[in-house]
Structure formats: structure tokens, C-alpha cells
Amino acid sequence: MINIYYSHLHKAQFLSIPKTGSTTVKASLSIDDENKYQFRDQFIYNYPCFTVIRHTYPRIISAFHELKRSGHPRALVSFEKFIENIENFGFFDHHLHPQSWYLDKLKDKISKIYTLENGLLDFMLDYSLPELKIRNTTPNPPILLDKALKKKIDVLYFQDLKMYSQTAVTY
Length: 171
Known about the structure:
5-stranded mixed β-sheet, alpha/beta, 7 helices
């Protein structure tokens, strides 16, 4: 399911990818679920569409914590076992789908990609927003990624890491 949010005020559409700051973007544009539709083959409005991506490591850690809080049985384990569950069962929840999965579905229809880590200032300027309305800042216990765990994540999210390195200036 691919959710597109729209703002008539800002004449923009937003591709929402889980765990990339979507709640903050929607709040900053003053849009909610009433301003949403599911993308099928084409956009409903003739506005440019943008999205936000996030580096893979903090994104997957955030997804792990969210799924664990919600009681998902494949997340009620250690982070290492959670990654093994993804290896064994695939991307078993929409929060885990690679960002590239969403972007591949829309191919050349995205006009701009911002990064959560260093692109939200550009987003504010592009849409003349007086402030960024930060949402969903649930503190999560830190997870240290050793070399072996990073390698497993790198294999699972190879396309995302490649895409992020081409989009982001730094991380």
C-alpha cells in the first residue's frame, strides 16, 4: 500500500514512507488522513510529488522499536534475532519494506527526495514553512551495530543504502 498525501495550499503531494519522518512532514504541511489516497497507477492531483528518505540503520532500529512496542511477535526478540527474522521471513511488516520498494513503484514521478538527516531545512524553505512541527520523537534505547550485524542489514537493504548515498551529502 502506497499512501500519497496532498496539500492544495502548498500545491504538493507527498509519498509517505514509514519511519522517515512522515508524521513531522504531514504536521508541518497541516495535512492529515483526510488528505490521503492510495496510489494505484497515477496521481489524482497534478501537483509535484516529493518524499523523505532516512539512512537505513536508524530507520530499521526505529521500526524494530515500534514493532516491539506494538507487540509484533517477530519483534519481541533481540535486535539480532529481529534481523534474522527479516532474513528468514522477508519484510513481514510495511515498516520494514525497503524505501527503494516505494520509490521503484513511482519511478520517475517523484520530483524531489529529501533526507531526514539533512534535508528537512530544504523542505522548510521549499514550502515556505515558518517551522518544522517535529512529531513522533519517542526515545528508544540505543542499539549498537557491530560489523556482522551491519553486514546483514547492508545485504537486506542494499538498494536503500545505494540510493541514500546518492541522495545525501553526508550522514
